[in-house]
Specification:
The chain has one helix at residues 2-22, and strands spanning 25-33, 38-47, 58-72, 79-92, 98-110, 114-115, 118-119, 124-136, 139-149, 160-169. It is mainly beta. The strands form 2 sheets. It has an 8-stranded antiparallel β-barrel. A two-stranded antiparallel sheet has the order 6-7. It is elongated.
Length: 171
């Protein structure tokens, strides 16, 4: 576990240097699945650079999210996945702290189809997310619920949900 946190910190710093040159953000999520499998997610985000429905209440915006996720299972059920998703964000107005809600649907590719007691059916999965949090001083913290499923393309389709704490640093 300690090795994983050291690796994640080093990767975040490396990605941070690359991201700052490309105006990308870096995020780290830590949480669990509904079956208590630990989940560690390292991502990079690229803002849409567009605002819609801007008013005194807030604005609709979004970002592209690309991530690597490590699913820590028992010795035979650990897994890895890569995902890519457009995420829409409604950011409420605020002076120094801005609450937000987010939603997105993207795709993910898993290393294998077994994850603890779940049989995902295929390596290709859809990634659905809902989240909320606070943005402040080029950072954000929040919580997320994400669901992975192949949408019945192949059976079985057990799917899996994750519930994570989220931190994002904007450059």
């Amino acid at each position: 576990m300690k090795k994983l946190f050291c690796w994640a910190a080093a990767a975040a710093m490396s990605i941070g240097h690359i991201a700052s040159a490309q105006a990308a953000d870096v995020s780290l999520d830590i949480g669990q699945t509904g079956e208590s499998t630990m989940v560690y997610r390292l991502g990079t985000q690229f803002d849409f650079s567009s605002n819609w429905f801007q008013s005194d209440v807030g604005r609709l915006t979004g970002f592209w999210d690309a991530a690597y996720t490590y699913w820590e299972g028992d010795e035979t059920s650990s897994n890895h996945s890569l995902s890519f998703s457009p995420v829409f964000v409604y950011e409420f107005a605020g002076e120094t702290v801005k609450p937000y809600i987010e939603a997105g649907i993207g795709v993910a590719v898993f290393e294998n189809t077994d994850l603890e007691d779940n049989d995902l059916g295929s390596s290709f999965q859809f990634e659905d997310r809902l989240g909320l949090g606070l943005r402040f001083a080029n950072q954000e913290v929040g919580v997320r619920a994400m669901h992975y499923s192949n949408a019945g393309i192949k059976q079985p389709n057990d799917g899996v949900e994750t519930y994570t704490l989220h931190y994002r640093l904007s450059f």
